[in-house]
Amino acid sequence: VQGRLFKVHRYFLERDSLFLRGALSSVQGIQGQPIQLHGVSSREFESLLDFLYEGMYRSGADTVPVSEWLNLLAAASALKFDRAREHAIAAIDNSSERPDAIEMMILAEKYGITKWLRPAYILMCKRAEPLRLSEAERIGLDRVVKLTQAREAFLRESLGVNGLRAVSPLPSPYPWPPSHQTQGLIARTPTPTLAVEEAARIVDKIFFTSDMNVID
Q1: How far apart are the C-alpha atoms of 171 and 29, rounded to whole Å?
Q2: What contacts 111, CB < 8 A, 6 or more positions away?
Q3: Where are the bilayer-spanning segments (predicted)?
């Protein structure tokens, strides 16, 4: 792997990966002839071996750095270790060091993990800070346009435009009472729950209207 040799019990590889089971069958009985693996780095492969040999003794996602779970996800996806991949996905979901929304979008696209998209879109929809240029370059024009539409729709509804009630997730810096009348619009005290629900509704409309099967 990337010029680095690993001496591994073939049992684990044949048991858990149909891909490697096929590759190993072609060198049955041949000694001193390493199999070259492509599409995975030596560090990622090392994380996979670490999981196969020692992972069963670990408990809890946060006992292992999230970078190791990401390496495991990369190797398991490339080499078709389905159970290791599922374990990595669950560990990343439960990690307190989970990547930010932009990174989760990129990972979801790269590894085909559609369930990570909707929560990432919702977080970006209600995020106070605008989309940065570096972020836009990473996620592509199509997502930039849709995220901009979602954020604008969320902002309009948060501000109570067109008679809609305000549901901004951000606490007001002004000493307004919990309920007040402004130009015929009734505002209400914002709550995180209302903000998430409103952002989710907008995200579903903009991103998933024509492909609702993506939403789990």
Answers
A1: 68
A2: 73, 74, 77, 85
A3: none
DSSP 55-103: GGG--SGGGS-HHHHHHHHHHHHHHTBHHHHHHHHHHHHH-TT---HHH
Distances (CA, A) of 122 to 58, 94, 116, 150, 201: 32, 18, 11, 9, 9
Report the C-alpha gap between 216 and 115 in whole angstroms. Answer: 6
pLDDT tens-digit series, residues 138-166: 999 999 999 999 999 998 887 765 444 44
Q: From CA 156, how far away is CA 133, in angstroms rounded?
A: 23
DSSP 8-state secondary structure symbol assigned to residue 17: B
Q: Judge contact between 107 and 101, C-beta under 8 A.
A: no
Q: In the beta sheet, which residues pair with residue 182?
A: 185
- Strand partners of residue 163: none
Number of separate helices (H) and strands (E) present in the chain: 10, 2
Give the tens place of pLDDT for each residue, 82-108.
999 999 999 999 998 999 999 999 999
**Cβ(71)–Cβ(47) under 8 Å?**
yes
C-alpha 205/C-alpha 215 separation (Å) is: 12
How far is the C-alpha of 22 from the C-alpha of 148, rounded, in Å? 46
The DSSP H or E segment spanning 182 is strand 180-182
**Dist. CA 29–CA 133, nearest whole Å:** 54
